[in-house]
Task: structure prediction
Amino acid sequence: MIIDHPLLGPRDSAEFTYLGDASLIDRPDGMAETAAEAFYAYQYLRDNPAGLHRELWYHEAGDRSWLVVTRDTVTHEIISVELARDVARARGRSR
Amino acid sequence: MRYSGFRVIKEALTGHKGWTPAWRDPEPQDHYDIVIIGGGGHGLATAYYLAKEFGQKKIAVLEKGWIGGGNVGRNTTIIRSNYLLNGNEPFYEFSLKLWEGLEQDFNYNAMVSQRGILNLIHSDAQRDAFIRRGNAMILNGADAELLSVDQIKARYPFLNVNDARFPIKGGLAQHRGGTVRHDAVAWGYARGADSRGVDIIQNCEVTGFRTRNGRCLGVETSRGFIGAGKVGCAVAGASSRLMAKAEMRLPLESHVLQAFVSEGLKPVLPGVITFGAGHFYCSQSDKGGLVFGGDLDGYNSYAQRGNLPVVEDVCEGGMAIFPMLGRARLLRMWGGIMDMSMDGSPIIDRTHIDGLYFNGGWCYGGFKATPASGFCFAHLLARDASHPMATAFRFDRFEKGLMIDEKGVGAQPNLH
Ligand SMILES: Cc1cc2nc3c(=O)[nH]c(=O)nc-3n(C[C@H](O)[C@H](O)[C@H](O)COP(=O)(O)OP(=O)(O)OC[C@H]3O[C@@H](n4cnc5c(N)ncnc54)[C@H](O)[C@@H]3O)c2cc1C
Result:
């Protein structure tokens, strides 16, 4: 698979390590009443879809940036690649 | 029909006209007491033990394709019980004991071959860890032996013990481990179940569950609604897709694992060998092909085929310990979809819906578990209580912090 890095252009997926579902960006509020259940779901439960999947890849052997890759898990086709930083900011994280 | 040596001779003398199909091809009935979804090793074994050991009647196995076309027909056929942790080791040892009597039990030649498995050691720290694992195995009634480099050299002269980066320093052997003809496991259980009245219904995909007041009434399928008193799901890599129809999110990711087989060779490899520094394992099939594999590709996948970086990595691992492998040509490679769980251990449990039961999370090691998984799942379905060997394989272990994490890598399915 070739990941089209937003800053560096097309890179071999072997340069990256894989973390998993991009929902891991949405870390729950540890102070909330429901924190225990929320963290359980966050840490352990996954949609694991057959089809489009938004997922976190880390460019370990490259520029060390985190990417959100939208990929089809049935065909391995990569639909889009964004910087995780941009995705997180757009969701109101890291202000 | 019972299979025996006598029968083979008799059929040979009478033109092989007496053989009958090993299982029927029945139309689905309107209602069963127990419906098992998934005609892989685990689903078929469950149906077999339900009928044979737990006296259940009116059972069906629903398979979306043909039986044995999933992981049970794609794996590298290694059986062993060399685990460390309490929840796992007794279960896998129970499974190995069932393998030892399986062929007589279901009257089918599954080519169970206890040729032994050797895990290689490459460092002092690894030796300590393997000694501890060996002791845990022995405490649980399994066999384990620590081998020195000289013992390994004598038995496997072709191993490269002096690799500059990963010299071989010893090994942990389980002599009762080995390989089994994987397809024959599916076929043997199918035949054994069918002969006890189980309906094996192929080309029948389950597309949903019918529930009322929190109770499962049956399944919607590509061949119409089939009612059921109880429903057991054993669909391995498709677990999340299926259970999503029951509004469940599982502690699983589906990952692709590749396997490889070389051209047929004369007998060169007398057992199963695993490389302890990278991830590589190899055995020789009775047909002569070297069967080997390594790591997961490492990303969520339902594709049943992998990519080239892992092919290269597996072959490099192989070359590091078996330089002779470089002379063999690769015949085929393929992939299967693993139900990788968050702690690397399986689940055999009830669900929040009455009458709906789940079996999955077998990762890349569910083939060896087939007999015990079927036995314990049948116990759960028939008696509504966990089998004593499978009490740790619960859904709520993640919520309660009771993970069974052999590798200690945490909730990262692609690292287990
Ligand atoms: C390359 C590879 C190597 C492996 N090596 C080993 C090994 O050496 N040792 C070991 O112990 N394990 C190994 N495994 C793991 C082992 O094969 C699996 O854990 C085990 O086979 C899973 O259980 P199963 O046999 O029931 O799965 P499967 O054979 O996959 O059965 C599941 C069945 O469910 C069916 N299904 C799915 N969805 C539906 C639906 N909606 N309706 C009806 N039917 C459905 C599928 O078609 C499939 O036939 C390996 C796996 C792979 C892929």
